[in-house]
Amino acid sequence: MRIPWVLLAAAVGLCWAQAPKTNPFAGDRNAAETGRMMFRGSCAPCHGIRAEGGKGPDLTLGTYSHGDSDSDLFNVIFNGAGGTEMPDFGARLDADDIWRLVSYIRSLARRETATLRGNRESGEKLFWGKGQCSQCHRIRDKGGRMGPDLTVVGRLRSLAYLKESLLDPGADITSGYPTVTVVTKDGKKIVGAQRGYDNFSAQLMDTSDNFYSFLRSDVTSVKREFKSLMPAYRGTFSDAELDDLLAYLVSLRGEGKR
Ligand code: HEC
Ligand code: HEC
Fold this sequence. Notes:
Layout: H1 5-18, H2 29-42, H3 44-47, H4 70-79, H5 95-114, H6 120-128, E1 138-139, E2 142-143, H7 153-156, H8 159-167, E3 179-184, E4 189-197, E5 201-205, E6 211-215, E7 219-225, H9 239-251
Antiparallel strand pairs: 1-2, 3-4, 3-7, 4-5, 5-6
Helix pairs in contact: 2-5, 4-5, 6-9
The chain binds heme C (2 copies).
């Protein structure tokens, strides 16, 4: 079937008309509230119920790797992010609803950025120096492997979550990182983060990056606890140092990304 050019042009024109450059609902509280309800249904499974991140990045930080303008946000929701889990919602939601989602995301960002007052550079020094965080954590190709890789932690986690990780690491253990303690037949005790665990065996890694694998039948005991091997840093850092460290962690958003 041949489509007359005029119709095609009109259709293209309509598509363009659907996506204005600025948010028609900017600053509209009702629109943000409707956006919040939609977010719960369609987006929370990946971005968290308060948009603070999960499988998808934290959207409350006020800065986005796909660009910071309203139309950048619109575009990534409309088109998705190719090669990632972020779906395209262009066919499922109409443009107004996508703008309402943008309004909601904006309403979160303002609050969060206000609390970010630390200095990134000082935070970086604390991470590799006084905090000795690199003993257990990697950023890109540097650091230890016992704890989670933090290369993109700023994209994945909220400020509140990161702060809690430092002050009270046991409160919310990163999934996959319980503590495993093995006592060998000759009475040696080995403590590390879980790397594998089943009825017959246990694998773990200690703070010196040593990997161990045991058969249960070969050892005296194996114990798994949902507590963290990360020391609590309450009292180690001043409030100002803590803010600096948080500013650094939030900035960790992966290579080539802001
Ligand atoms: C299946 C999981 C999933 C769902 C559902 C999902 N997202 Fe995402 N989203 C992601 C991932 C993963 C990324 C990161 C893409 C990347 O790295 O480029 C992302 C990225 C984004 C970004 C860009 C963030 C940035 O820093 O540039 C925005 C904005 C966003 N999503 C909004 C939404 C909204 C709004 C919804 C619901 C309508 C939604 N997402 C639903 C997984 C999801
Ligand atoms: C002795 C090892 C060790 C040291 C030192 C350590 N951590 Fe951890 N860290 C861990 C382990 C293990 C986990 C995973 C268990 C948990 O959730 O607490 C973790 C979790 C985290 C998380 C949560 C990551 C996520 O995605 O859920 C952050 C953030 C973090 N650490 C930051 C730091 C910072 C910053 C420092 C230095 C001030 C530090 N850690 C020092 C072992 C360590």
